[in-house]
Amino acid sequence: MVTSDQRRRQLAREKYLRQQQRREEARRRSRRNIVIASTLAVVLAAGGAVWASVALTGDDAKGSDVASSPSNTPSPEQSTPSQPEPKMAIDKKGSYTMALTTNLGDITITMDAAKAPRTVNSFKHLADKKYFDGTKCHRLTTSGIFVLQCGDPKGDGTGGPGYSIPDENLGGLGKAGADGSVTYPKGTVAMANAGPNTGGSQFFLVYKDTKLPPSYTPFGTFDAEGVKLVEEVAKAGVAGGSGDGAPQKAVTIQKAAVTKK
């Protein structure tokens, strides 16, 4: 005859076994999802839609005071902005220049305030606070898309200023083609993001014509000397030999200054 104490122990063992089974099933599902995600990325690359698997993300709404994600990369996760977007303090009809002094030379970016006023206003605000000074360009992509991504104070794609700015000028590069992409020409400067209207401080420099969905605010162009500099960085490749990651030839923004032309 089974005593009540034995019955309780039996029920406890059965409950424990059920819990273990559920945990194992959850682990199997998790492993399966990882495999599916990895397989999907390979399929996208094989199909020529490489830009879909190496999206230019940046967790730019996450961060501390004028301080992700290409990120992000950048991490594509997004948090609630911790502070408001800077008040408009530029001439919306004006043209502005952002001068980047780097360890490899100078890059001069011409920004169009008429087409991307809130983006330009944010860069002026951040540069005036020396936000970009001493930051690394953390991501180089040499396969599928051809960009150098900068503007993250953390240097890993996860940093941002603590606020978000909206997308602007998304139609500025023309209508998307049948594949859903437009060409970002060599010399274009555009915002990285973690989804619609999540721009922060991360931006990318296009050193070779690149097809991307029209989801990244194109707000300016950079000069021929800057293009040559980034091309040299791209020639040196990505650390570790992959097509996407930290540049082998490190690029540090020593100083950034925004002035009206």
Description:
This protein is α+β, with helices and mostly antiparallel strands and 261 residues long. The protein has two domains: 4-47; 52-260, Cyclophilin-like (Cyclophilin, Beta Barrel), CATH 2.40.100.10. Helix content is 28%, strand content 21%. It has four helices and twelve strands. The chain has helices spanning 4-46, 50-53, 117-128, 224-236, and strands spanning 95-102, 105-112, 135-136, 139-141, 147-150, 182-184, 188-191, 203-206, 210-212, 218-222, 244-245, 252-260. The strands form two sheets. A ten-stranded antiparallel β-sheet has the order 3-12-1-2-10-7-8-5-4-11. A two-stranded antiparallel ribbon has the order 6-9. A hairpin with a 5-residue loop joins strand 4 (139-141) and strand 5 (147-150). The protein is elongated. The model is unreliable at 30-54 and 60-79 (pLDDT under 50).
Q: Can you describe this structure in just a few lines?
A:
Residues 102-258 form the PPIase cyclophilin-type domain. PPIases accelerate the folding of proteins. It catalyzes the cis-trans isomerization of proline imidic peptide bonds in oligopeptides. The chain has 261 residues and is α+β, with helices and mostly antiparallel strands.
